[in-house]
């Protein structure tokens, strides 16, 4: 039997609001995934170190601060430097303007989920796009 999908839910930057991250963390857990939540105000370096240490399959980044165009691609860049990006599904969510989403996807994020996205949509996306063999 394969191990559960391991997801790191992280809040990069100076965000002080994590309700959305906690909602998605709970939904993923309830869907049978192992969830590690980093807490607030994490640097990209801290997030990537936790992802490597916890051997996660998915890095889910939640951001509200407006610094998404800098912080989210930085996490992807660091995952590549650690040679774990190719085995890791990286997704983002939060208050992100629609016009910024194509650039974030070009930087290496697989998908961006904005407010109001049903949690089941995120769960299904993870299951359908996971990079490891289940």
TrEMBL record:
One of its GO terms (molecular function) is methylmalonyl-CoA mutase activity. Its EC number is 5.4.99.2. Pfam families: B12-binding. Keywords: Cobalamin, Cobalt, Isomerase, Metal-binding. Its cofactor is adenosylcob(III)alamin. Residues 4-134 form the B12-binding domain. InterPro entries: Acid_CoA_mut_C, Cobalamin-bd, Cobalamin-bd_sf. It comes from Alkaliphilus hydrothermalis. This is Methylmalonyl-CoA mutase C-terminal domain/subunit.
